[in-house]
Amino acid sequence: MNAIVIDDSSAMRRILRRLLEGLGFDVIEAEHGQQGLERLSQHPRPDIVLVDWNMPVMDGLSFVKAVRANPEYQDLKLMMVTTETEPQRMAKALMSGVDEFVMKPFTGEILMDKLRLLGVTTTA
Description:
The protein is of the alpha/beta class.
C-alpha cells in the first residue's frame, strides 16, 4: 500500500509517516501542494493522499482541485488533515473533492477509522 503525506510541518509529516508505516504503507512526503503534485506524477499511484490545508506555495485545497481536474485521479482517495474546523470551509473542501477529514490533533485510532471508512485496507 502506498501513501503520500503533504504537510509543510516536518513534525506532522514524521507523525503521519510513522502511523502509516505501522499500518503497512510505503510513504512518500511532500512539503506543499505543488511538490505533492510532482510526487503524484513521479511515483506509483498511492492508495491514499493525506494533505494539510494551510501550506505555502500551494495549499491543500488548491492541490485537491488540481488532482480532481485530472481524469486519471478522479477516484484517488484524498484525506484532509487539518486544524480547519469551520463548517463552511469543510463544505468547500468536500465540494472540491476531499473524501474525508482528520482534525488535528488526532490519534492513530482516529486515522485508522478514517482509512477504514474510505475503504483503504491495511495489513494491520
